[in-house]
Amino acid sequence: MTDLVVEDLVAGYGDARVLHGVRLSVGQGEICAILGPNGAGKTTLLRALCGMVKARGKVTLGGTELAGRSPDAVARLGVAHVPEGRGTFMPLTVEENLRLGAFVRRGRAAVEADLGRIYTYFPVLKTRLRQAAGSLSGGEQQMLAIGRALMLRPRLLLLDEPSLGLAPLVTRELFRIVQAINAEERTTVVVVEQNAHLALGIAQQAHVLETGRIVLSGTAERIRADEQVAQSYLGYRV
């Protein structure tokens, strides 16, 4: 079943247009990788999906129109965005950051239960509850950012460059956890990632953006196995 549908999406900043009629769809419970070179419009695409930049076109999640809504309204419809650079509130503690993720929810018991759920995915966060987020390592901050997003109980999770600045071992563990979250909770995930090989390893489908347009779409397996595609768009050899 298709969950996220994007049709003829145009977006940018001021007079500068970045996205030029993007069209894509993501099945319910799937992981979709958005790949492409720097400046292709990947971050702008995620910002347009969550209402952070003005956009024209059609964006629906489960049949509900998202385009034209504020970021707050989009979040209330079940869209959680983990921005590039993590976006944690550095002076606040780990626990305070996590609780902020549930700001649109009611029901204290359910929120407390979900805190426990987050700790099963990221056990290290339970040992850092009273620490300021700014004192965590880069990998721990990224775990916190994803954990805070999960406190929303999202239907759609948007991840922007989750491996940025992280050591390879930490990155692989983070992607393993994202894959587990997707499998166990059936959360639809759209991930923008420079490490194409890793992203394609957990995704079911992928789209390659170039200068604001999708130039290639297909299953992650097919794109990963295509040597010409890998060399031309993804920066590695098969």
TrEMBL record:
GO biological processes: L-amino acid transport
Protein name: Branched-chain amino acid transport system ATP-binding protein
Lineage: Bacteria, Bacillati, Actinomycetota, Actinomycetes, Streptosporangiales
Keyword set includes Protein biosynthesis: no
Keywords annotated in UniProt: Amino-acid transport, ATP-binding, Nucleotide-binding, Transport
Gene3D superfamilies associated with the record: P-loop containing nucleotide triphosphate hydrolases
GO MF annotations, alphabetized: ATP binding; ATP hydrolysis activity; branched-chain amino acid transmembrane transporter activity
Family from the record: Belongs to the ABC transporter superfamily.
